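Sat 14:20. Reprocessing the chain from the morning session after the first attempt stalled halfway. Input below, unchanged.
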Amino acid sequence: MDVPLRILLVEDSEDDALLLLRTLRRGGYETVHERVDNAADMGAALDGREWDLVISDHSMPTFNSSAALAMLRGKGFPDLPFIIVSGKIGEDTAVASMKAGANDYIMKDNLARLNTAIERELRDAEERRERRRAERDLAVSENRFRLMIEQSPLSVQIFSPDGWTLRVNRAWEELWGVTPEEIPGYNVLRDEQLAEKGAMPYIERGFAGQATAIPPIRYVPDRSIPDVSDVPERWVRAYVYPVKSEDGKLLEVVLVHEDITERVRAEENYRLIFENAVEGIFQTTVDGRLLTANPAAARMLGYESPEELLAEIRDVGDQLYVEPERRMEFRRLAGQQGAVSGFEIAMRRKDGGVVWVSVTARAIRDAAGEPTGYEGTMEDVTERKNAERALREIREAERRRISRDLHDGVLQDLTYTLQSMQLTRHLAGKGEWSEERDREVETLRRAVEGLRDAIYDLRVEDAREKPLVRSLEALMELNRQMSPERELELIVEEGYPEVPSGAAGVEVLRVVQESLTNVRRHSGARHATVTLGTDSGEIRVEVRDDGRGFESGIMPGVGLAGMKERAFALGGELEVESVPGEGTLVRLRLATSALAGSGPKPV
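Finished this time. Tokens:
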């Protein structure tokens, strides 16, 4: 296959040009050519298109090879081959032309080696172009690398293999406050300050050909050196690495400094805050392993130091929580919201006592968004909890006193009055009792019933320490007294836990009481049942009656809004089902853990 070749022929003889082209075709070249014989035409041809080769006659009427070669090189074609093909040229002239830049010369009566010369010169020209491109790329790369080093925010210092400074960048001069000229004769391998600070083994390792990192070092400027009196102390971390040739010979050693003064100061400030904070500061894994704690946290929990706390506490939830189930509540809130604030929990102290803390924490997440741990603060709120407990006890005592006074005084008087009026009505003859007196008896009966409800509400707080079953039995008996004509039944299914009512149990009692009040006042039921049971980890409380029922969404009486609010506060769910003429069902569902007890008492 013929090789394409673009040739510019500087030749005044058309016959000689045709002879050259015939020789090239025989050599396997498919030529594209243009023939010129003067400077103007040659200049236009060079500007008009690209050429692979220039072949020039030596002597022409108005032009010659020397002028053609000068024009070629003058126009910036240093790698374009230039071959002289002449009928007669002296040896001295030919040598001078070669020295001027011609690549070869061939006599017209001996064109046998023309193709070989062209092949060689094309190959050499391509190698020269590749070499020039490589040199240009290398120069660009070196310039880019120089700019990168010069503009780097990190201090860079480059040494000879024997430790002498070769060059530095601007960041180095800014970091140390001097220029290499101001510290002549500096040799890093003889730096006494580096030896004193223990950095010399790392430096020597770098000069031995091994890259290494130097631990952070605090540098105090030498105040004896001019112009450094205002240079501040610095914390610097450094990296040293060797630059080697392909055969492993050490060429240079680079020392990169990073100024970490601000970071060290920030860490020191954080450490001071961490150590001296009034609030406890902590960090845990997602499964509850304590990772860090400050002295305040250790003191709150009765330990002498954070180290002792970390050594003895492996699982925060199991070992410190008085109520371990609160761990699930903490995780639920942190998972939903990403953080918790004011989460109050009771924790065990080392001496066995209890401390109440208010926790503010956030979840720490990995790149995938999964929690890996928690970090936050805790505040000792035991004193406030004790004050709240004392206030609650005062209020409970006051409620008991009021309940007792109402029961022993007002209720007894009203009951006596009601019974007397009912007896009088029974003994009255015809015409001696009026409808108005009937209304008065009914009004008094409702007052007695309402007073009993109020007295129960005042006493219901006493049910905290009793099992819910016992509290419900007492409630059922009270409602039997208020409605003797109605049959009330309590059913406790097998497996129901015998646990104290606690604060949640009190709210359950109030829901049942409100339901029974509606049964008494509005249902017209002959029979009502209260059922306690469990389903799949949930407590189920049902109040069912056989009364008149009501249309869907329209519950007569009062208390439904209150029952729903209590259910919501318990984290449970309230359902009401009713069919006209068939009765009503009120069902409360809540987590078993909600009735785990009344919780720890503050100390």
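The domain at 153-264 is CATH 3.30.450.20 (Beta-Lactamase).
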